[in-house]
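JOB MANIFEST
job_type = single_chain_structure
chain_count = 1
residues = 250
[input]
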Amino acid sequence: MGKLLKYEFRKSMGINIALLALTALYEIYILIGAYFRNDAILMSRLIVLFGLAGVATVAVIVLTTIKTYKKDITTNRGYMLFLTPNSGYKILGSKLLELLIVVLVGGAIFTSLMVLNTKLLCDLDIQEGTLFVELSALSYVAFSSKPVEVTLLILSILVWIVDVVALACASASISATLLNGRKFSGVASVGIFIAIYVAVGKIFQLAGLHVSIDMLVSVDKYITVIIVHAVVAAIFYYVSSWLIQNKLSI
């Protein structure tokens, strides 16, 4: 599985380096502004946009993973991959593990930079009552006063991301196996994804197990949410792996 993991990292290296370079350039711009003590309101807006850029970066990584997986099971590129002595479980497992590592490392980088940026902003002479300033100051207080809750929140979001990707892979696997050669199989896979996601999300919401960014949520609740989402992701992973292992024909 180690070779498969290296293969996945090589495939995603280009987009990951590009995203890291853009992040570095944005952070340098913010640091220059903080050094010259530019307008605090403008700085706070830049920092909020930096946080949104982090969300967009994760979305790009997730979509790239799903797109790569779909190509692996529906095009000639995947033919050589499935000729190797590796099971479908290892192939999909290496892809999800690579996603987990990249998002975890990227999330740690963005979180650290957000803490640094909000600390720099709080050190400036800022005008109280400004929405962007208050949001930035609030995020710094949350990170510094409730590190356990913030860490569990980040982990719950990370597990939720893996959950969504595993579901997307399962939907793509159904399209490539059970619906192979059928008309509108691609559209059907999207429909399957949406239907299952909405249904599972509704169950989570009714059970009070959906991912929440509320800092008042207890530690036990966060741990329960993480465990439940991890189990659901494992189910989607097993279904998808079993399909490509036993039903896939490239």
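[summary]
The chain has a mean pLDDT of 78.
The radius of gyration is 21 Å.
exit_status = 0
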